[in-house]
Amino acid sequence: MAENEKILYDDGTHKCIMFSFDDESHEDSFLSVNQYLIIQNGVGVLVDPGSEAIFDELYDAVSAHIEVDNIKFIFFSHQDPDVSGSIAQWAVSSKAKFIMSALWVRFMSHYGFMEMSRIMNLSDHGAKLKFGSEYLKFVPAHFLHSPGNFTLYDSKSKIIFSGDIGAAVVNAPDDYKHVNSFEEHVEHLHGFHKRYMGSNKLCRAWVEKVKELDVDIIAPQHGLIFEDENVEKFLDWLQELKCGSDYLEELY
Amino acid sequence: MDVLKDLKSEAKGFTILYVEDNQALRQNAAKLLQKFFDRVDVAADGVIALEMFKKNLYPIVITDIKMPNMNGFKLIKNIKHLRADTKILIMSGYDKKEYLIEAIELDVFRYLKKPVNLKALTSDLYIALKEIKEARNTKILYANLQNIFNYQSSMVMMLNQTKPVLANQIFLDFYDVDSLEEFKETYRGISEQFMEHDGFLYDSEKISSIDKLRMSEKKLFHIKMKNASAEIKHLIAKYQIIPEKSGYGILSFDDVTELKLLKLFDERQTDLDDKNQDNEAMFKLLEVIQRNSAKVELHNYYKGLSITHDGVIVEVKNDSIVLKTIYMQQKAVQYEKRTILVSEALPSAINCSEVVKIGFENQTIEVKNLKFMNSSPISRSTIRVVPDEKQSASLFLSENKFHGDIIIEDISLDAVKFKLNALPAGLQSGDEVNLDIVLELDKKPLIINTEATMLRKSESRHSFSVVFIFKDVKKRDLVKYITKRQMAIIREFKGLQNG
Q1: Which end of chain B is more exposed for a tag (fewer CB within 10 A), N or C?
Q2: Which residues are CB-contacts of A90 (< 8 A; sequence separation ≥ 6)?
């Protein structure tokens, strides 16, 4: 298996792959970035493919698993450049439709993207894409941190691709980026979440939704993935986290 | 309407009897009536009048009521016995209720109170004459209808020379009009309604259809006409002379649309008709969209860049529509005239190839030349861009280099479109060629050398556009080129919005 990637789930017809391509210019800041690919019966969904700088590498890595023409959807959890900066490149080189919050559609021209007819925009409550009895669910995660923000739950692999939720500023290993000890990992989570996430109320709303789902893995867009008991530990932690507007007095 | 002039033409050939005991009035009125009627007879009382009527059986009589010897009502009673359809106008200084009731009972055409208003009199005479003529024509028509096959369900029209004078209800229903007058006002003539179709009768420069019909009595002609609902109908027309009335004839139309023969006569024209019918349906649909204030999507391409926003239809005209949209889309329409409309209410996208007007002051655009599209270019999954001027291209057809001018119209990851000033001899769809394309990426030449297959060509006035599908290109640099070029075009377009 190639470096920079890890198969998170594979049952022969359904597969989830985690890629870790960093924008070299950010290497010093350990902002380790993750991209994900879901393959269901030969059809691909790419999750948060990242910035323009990593496009070539990710394109090649993705191509090793699936013909790019078979990627039907590319999902952006939110509008940040390290999430959706490569939208123009993917638009040129794939035939995929792009899924994102309706809030960010008109901003995509700043990334050189104008193919509005290829966008499936998500209204605030999200949406569900079905494949057989299984589904992909776009779970709202607004203001965590972006005002129009979604996480993606894959019912087959039981992975929730959580965007910036659960992101950690950490010097991560290339091969298997997972949390060993949640208690030790918390210090890498805290600073980022305290400043970037909207408020405790918003965190609770998302946790409540996620707890309704059967989740095995939380896969954030930065840092390490949460598995097994760490899933619940993280959700419990996030549920109680004071952040964003809870610290209003510190901000003004 | 010029009543006096119309009356003069209508009264031609008619004789009128005017009965009045007041000599001065009689003379004045006779003078006036002589201006219109061929002959005006006058009588001073009812007895004289009745004698004159017995000899002449006037179609129209004007009479006073209070007269010596025999009063007006008695005279009218006698006249109606002799000729029931004579139109009688009463002119009297009295308008007592009993008089009016009696006039109604005697089926008097008009009751005019003295002093009589000239305008009212001439207008009433005009209407009376019209009714007389129509009644006569109807009589003639129905007397002759028996000779017409299937006349009860055919459209029938009586002509005097080439002028329509009467039409049956089926004809009026076909055009959804109440009268022949209304038909003439709305549609002008009948032969103008005959539509072009191979093997059919329609007006040509050489001869009008009506003349042709009149010259070929009892011959059957195929006719194509649109009814009031704009449905195209196939009819068999026949002209028949009315023997007892010179210059008159009956034109009949038998509807055979159900036989579906139009295509057998002229397939091309029938296809065209179908398209036009689609066009009419399209405008009706656009009206529905407008009435519901439903959104439509507008799409334009600026140098390959897709510019799309919502709009609403504010007006549906005869052959154009007015839409309200945002400034950015207006600018896109201004630079790339062709606009595509998309709506869930439409069966396919509509291509609008002409811009009538862009109203920057009220955020509107007016577009025309609307056509349903077979394929929807807005669902394109490949991005094409127009390269900048730093480009060159060579084309090889089995080792032979094409020596004409080549301009790259657009390029995508899969294909390129060349504009050629001439077409290389023998170049056909499916042919394999070699392409050498040089573009500039990050101030360095980007060389694309590949085999390609010709997909299609199209011809315009002085050039040919040819699309080639790449066999194998190194995608990486081309992706970079296209995305960079796209970004540059976005900037260029945004710049245009300030200018």
Answers
A1: C
A2: A46, A49, A55, A74, A96, A98
Shortest distance, CA B295 to any CA of chain A (angstroms): 15
Name residue, tokens 């392409």: B435
The residues, ordered by sequence, that sit 6+ positions from B337 with a Cβ below 8 Å of its Cβ are: B353, B354, B355
Indicate the residue of B297, B475, B486 with minimum beta-carbon distance to A88: B486
For chain A, what is the domain count?
1
Tell me whether 0.85 is exceeded by the ipTM: no
The per-residue pLDDT for range B61-115, each reduced to its tens digit, is: 999 999 988 999 999 999 999 999 999 999 998 888 888 999 999 999 999 988 8
What pLDDT digit, counting tens, does each position of A168-185 carry? 988 766 667 899 999 999
- Clarify whether residues B13 and B125 are in a common domain: yes
| Closest in A95, A112, A116 to B487, CB measured | A112
Domain that holds residue A9: 5-251
Is the predicted pLDDT of residue B378 greater than 70, yes or no? no
- Residue B10 resides in a domain: yes
Chain A residues in contact with B381 (beta carbon < 8 A): 95, 118
Minimal Cα distance from A97: which residue of B? B381
Domain that holds residue B317: 280-379
Predicted confidence at residue A244, as pLDDT, reads 96
Looking at the structure of chain B, the number of domains it has is: 4
CB contacts of B297 in chain A (<8 Å) are 117
B486 to A114: CB separation less than 8 angstroms, yes or no:
yes
B 282-321: CB under 8 A from A: 297, 299, 305-308
Task: Decide if B144 is inside a domain.
Answer: no
Domain boundary at B104, B135, B166, which? Answer: B135
Pair of tokens at residue B281: 């349906």
pTM as predicted: 0.63
**Does position A166 have pLDDT exceeding 70, yes or no?**
yes
Measure in Å the smallest separation between the Cα of B379 and chain A Cα atoms.
Answer: 7
Q: Do B8 and B129 have their domain in common? A: yes
Residues of A with CB under 8 A from a CB of B: 52, 55-56, 59, 88-89, 91-93, 95, 109, 112-118
Provide the angle, in degrees to the nearest 10, between the axes of the packed helices B46-56 and B72-82.
10
Q: H or E element: which one contains B391? A: strand B391-397
Does some domain include residue B273? no
Q: Is the pLDDT of residue B151 over 80?
A: no
B384: nearest CA partner in chain A:
A92
Residue B313 falls within a domain, yes or no? yes
pLDDT at A116: 85
